[in-house]
Design a protein that fits this description.
The chain is built from three helices and nine strands. The protein has helices at about 15-20, 40-45, 100-105; strands at about 10, 30-35, 50-60, 65-75, 90-95, 110-115, 120, 125-130, 135-140. It is globular and about 50 Å long.
Amino acid sequence: MTVKRLDHVSVVVEDLAAATGFFPALGLSVAGRAPVEGAWVDRINGMDGVQVDIVMMHTPDGHGRLELTRFRHPPLQPADPAPPNMPGLRSVMFAVESVDETLERLQAHGAVLIGGVAEYAGRYRLCYVRGPAGIIVALAEDLRVPG
C-alpha cells in the first residue's frame, strides 16, 4: 500500500486572524473555516476537552492545502521559535514567481528574513522567513528558462 497524496500541512497558531492574513500574500486563499471539538478530536489529540478553530487554505493550483489551527482549549504551550537546525518540521516551502516581490509582501505582514536571499547553482533564488507562530516559510524562485 502506498500513500495516495500529501493531504495538508497543519500549523498551530496563536493569532488565527494574523496567520489567515499572512498566507494570502503568498497567493493562498481560504477554502473554509470551522470550529472543531468533540470526542473524536479529543481521541486523536490524546487530550480532553479540545476546542479548536481551523482555517483551511489552498494554493492557487488547487493541489496544496495548509490548515491553520488555533486552540481555544487547552491553552497553548508557549515555546520560543525553533532554530533552523532543531529536529522536527523544518519549513514549509512555496515555489514563487519572484522571491523579492513575495518577500516584500510577506514582510508587510510581519515576516522576518532569517538569513539572506541566496542563489543556488544559477537555478534557484531561495530564502527563509519566520512566519506566523515562528514557523519557517521557505521561498524558491526557479531561474531556469522554461523550454
